[in-house]
């Protein structure tokens, strides 16, 4: 009898472990790719940022270091319950990019909070002139996105 309980327990732990990892990693990763893809769609077609028309610009390449910086900032904001470009310890977006190993030139960071879907985040950024212009900055060549709970971050950079 004990042998069967042990096998059942080990099987259950394996199933729960895989399920938790799947829920924790797969959904946000899909949202992050979708977020950058939506930004690239806007960049390809151009858009109005306030009253100013922003012409189409080249799409952004995904960058793993910028992605790491964005994810870490989203997690930090969620864990410490703040919403700011500056972390409570005074860390800046550029410092986060460098700490993540980014060798390019940091350009900008967009933040959002309180949204559950990518389209809501994109619409909020399009409605804000400064966030919209950050998405449309032709000098930005690559980006990384992060999400934790309802905190969203995209970090923009360019090659050196």
From TrEMBL:
CDD domains referenced in this protein's UniProt entry, alphabetically: CAP_bacterial
Domain of life of the source: Bacteria
InterPro entries, per the entry: CAP_dom, CAP_sf
Pfam families: CAP
SCP domain boundaries: 36-151
Protein name as it appears in the record: CAP domain-containing protein
Taxonomic lineage: Bacteria, Pseudomonadati, Bacteroidota, Sphingobacteriia, Sphingobacteriales
